[in-house]
From TrEMBL:
SMART domains: FBOX (SM00256). Pfam families: F-box. Residues 15-61 form the F-box domain. This is F-box domain-containing protein. It comes from the Eukaryota. It comes from Xylaria bambusicola. Gene3D superfamilies: 1.20.1280.50.
């Protein structure tokens, strides 16, 4: 048979076979591809550039495949769907291959929090204190500045003369900021302050009876706070929730919701709360009546209730068939590595329980860190009363009937991602990992690790480490609907028998920044490392992040020490004023001999790291001298930025003549620090 290549077909017919496909047919093909595949297809030749350049062509792709992303929401406002598609595809690839686009020091602070793309950090220069809010996702050059003493004087006048108090941000969303204010006169008082700083509004001040494990969640219409403070019949504490109507600026008439069936108290580890749409959701990976039995099965306790009607009668709880988690005979868990979250799927909009567990699985050597996803499903009549009738023994018997006792049972692979195999897990200890997350949209786990050599004496060396998987060529996963029909026909949870073909290729792991080549030093790598490991601010790291960035604060750990806040983003649209070019530094692929259920090709095992160097090579001596000069200059700029931020001259955009205003806009601190690098591709 004569095989025609693209060049031969082009010579014979003028264009290749694919290029002769009509516009409509290409659109049908694109509907069956992932965003990354669509983007890569467009790069194969100039003819297909319209796939990622034409807004009309890209609109159905973005609105059907990733409608719940920030990029899609912005495209809905601007109409620039082609830009959204390119931005999403590049972000996914940058995340998977540990290749950030921007790294920079964006603030110096005494404490910080990160919610919904907003960096909220507090600067203390007693008796003055400021809360500054920077929109990291939109990367504006201005940030909102709140004068905390003025805010307190306006919100709780009798506390204005109190010099010793505690103030921290609990949550931020939809322009609403919730803060915890604690002070002591005759006795200690704790207040919840709900403010809208853009318009200098104090929406509510509420005195709290307890602050135990306090949290806040809100959207633009409702706000809820909860504390782990209500004592149950067994003498143990339970969660209690209270709602506030932001539209009417009043507390909901219903009494506090007492969550008698919700176990767990460590938010982000054993319990999680979120607001999605018109519902308040909560989930726990613990149960109230755990039994010391190897055959005992564990379930998620997942619930929701309408934001406008927080009552037990409206409470829905996932049934046992949908909330199955694991069986104790699978092996023990190392709780230090675990995290628990509720997320919205970028494509379907479904709510998903995401959990990381490090387990010593039965009949396997060593431990594995695995990421599990469970779709949140509420069927009819899944109310609290129905769930309470399902006692622990009844639930156990039901699942035992489903389980195949004669063979091991495994979850469907699209809901289970094995991260670190036993041979990898020993390379990292928990104290050296400052941040662990899983980005489900691109099947990637990401860690911020201290990769310092044991014999090194030059301080910590922070690096990003990622691992991602992709489907094997020609494999198509069954649709959600077909899986549901199969599950209902056999009355089983989302599990499958041992031995079913694994559809994913082995994990590809990357680390950034890559190793420096002593024979051919790259000055760009030195500059990047100096931003990650800030001289004079090393020793204590607190990190967080989201689906597009990692952010952490680092300090020397001494009491009262100031923290440098470092921002790393994988968003190709990220732009800061004052950025400098940092070269073309890609993540370095980590060679792996781990099979993950499939054979690795010899050429993939031997693949060397990819580090593209765009900056000119310099001699080692010149590089060292330049490095020392830059370090001294940058240290001075950090100190100068901190000094200038201790006493800003505030001018409110709402009323410039009002000296009593407690909120205003001001130039962002990162403009004074001027330590930001961007990397090209």
């Amino acid at each position: 048979m004569l095989l025609w290549g693209t060049e031969e077909m082009t010579t014979l017919f003028g264009v290749s076979g694919l290029q002769r496909l009509p516009y409509e047919l290409v659109a049908y093909i694109v509907q069956e591809l992932d965003i990354e595949d669509v983007f890569n297809w467009s790069l194969c030749c100039k003819h297909f550039q319209y796939i990622i350049r034409d807004d009309h062509f890209c609109k159905p792709v973005v609105t059907t495949k990733v409608p719940n992303t920030l990029e899609a929401r912005e495209a809905l406002e601007t109409g620039r769907y082609s830009r959204a598609l390119r931005r999403i595809a590049k972000r996914h690839e940058a995340l998977s291959k540990a290749s950030p686009y921007v790294v920079g020091i964006v603030a110096c602070a005494d404490s910080y929090a990160f919610f919904g793309g907003k960096l909220c950090y507090i600067i203390e220069a007693r008796p003055q204190r400021w809360l500054r809010i920077l929109d990291i996702h939109r990367l504006t050059d201005q940030e909102l500045v709140i004068d905390i003493p003025k805010l307190i004087a306006a919100a709780i006048p009798r506390a204005a003369k109190c010099r010793k108090y505690k103030f921290r941000v609990l949550y931020q969303a939809a322009g609403i900021v919730s803060c915890l204010f604690s002070f002591a006169l005759r006795e200690t008082e704790n207040w919840l302050l709900i403010i809208k700083p853009q318009s200098s509004q104090i929406l509510e001040t509420f005195r709290l009876a307890s602050t135990a494990r306090i949290f806040v969640r809100n959207n633009d219409k409702f706000l809820y706070f909860g504390t782990h403070s209500e004592e149950g019949a067994d003498g143990l504490r339970r969660w209690a929730l209270k709602g506030y109507d932001l539209t009417t600026k009043s507390w909901l008439p219903q009494p506090r919701v007492y969550m008698a069936g919700l176990a767990g108290y460590e938010i982000g580890s054993s319990v999680c709360f979120e607001i999605f749409g018109d519902y308040f959701y909560g989930v726990s990976n613990q149960t109230l009546n755990e039994i010391d039995d190897p055959d005992w099965h564990s379930f998620y306790y997942c619930f929701r209730f309408p934001l406008s009607e927080p009552s037990i009668t409206k409470l829905q709880v996932m049934g046992s068939d949908d909330s199955w988690r694991r069986t104790h005979q699978e092996g023990p868990i190392d709780d230090r590595w675990g995290f628990l979250s509720l997320e919205m799927d970028e494509a379907s909009g479904d709510i998903v329980i995401l959990e990381c567990r490090k387990e010593w699985l039965k009949d396997q050597r060593g431990s594995k860190r695995t990421y599990y996803a469970t779709e949140v499903t509420f069927r009819e009549n899944t109310t609290q009363r129905v769930y309470q009738r399902l006692g622990a023994d009844t639930t156990r018997r039901g699942i035992r009937d489903h389980a195949q006792s004669d063979s091991d049972i495994h979850r469907l692979p699209q809901y289970t991602h094995v991260g670190d195999e036993s041979s990898d897990a020993s390379l990292w200890i928990r104290s050296k990992m400052h941040y662990c997350a899983y980005i489900r949209c691109c099947h990637t786990f990401i860690d911020l690790v201290d990769d310092t050599d044991i014999d090194a004496s030059d301080g910590p060396r922070l690096r990003l480490r990622t691992g991602f998987r992709r489907l094997k060529p020609g494999i198509r996963l069954p649709s959600k609907q077909s899986m549901l029909e199969t599950m209902r026909s056999v009355s089983q949870p989302i599990m499958q028998p041992h031995g079913v073909h694994h559809p994913y290729q082995p994990n590809e792991r990357y680390i950034w920044p890559p190793e420096q080549d002593s024979r051919k030093p790259d000055f760009s790598l030195d500059r990047a490392r100096r931003l990650l490991d800030v001289k004079g601010y090393q020793g204590c790291v607190a990190a967080t992040g989201d689906e597009r960035s990692v952010i952490y604060a680092t300090s020397d750990g001494s009491k009262g020490s100031v923290q440098a806040v470092v921002f790393i983003t994988f968003d190709p649209a990220a732009r800061f004023r004052g950025m400098t070019y940092g070269g073309n530094i890609l993540g370095q692929q980590i060679p792996s001999d781990v099979c993950d259920g499939a054979d690795l090709d010899a050429d993939r095992r031997a693949k060397s790291s990819t580090v593209l160097q765009s900056s000119p090579n310099v001699s080692m001596g010149a590089a060292v001298r330049q490095s020392e000069a830059d370090t001294e200059e940058n240290q001075l700029s950090l100190d100068a930025a901190l000094a200038s931020s201790a006493g800003p001259s505030l001018s409110s955009p709402h009323d410039a003549s009002s000296v009593e205003s407690w909120a205003c806009y001001e130039n962002a601190m990162h403009l004074e620090i001027q330590r930001k690098l961007y990397f090209s591709r």
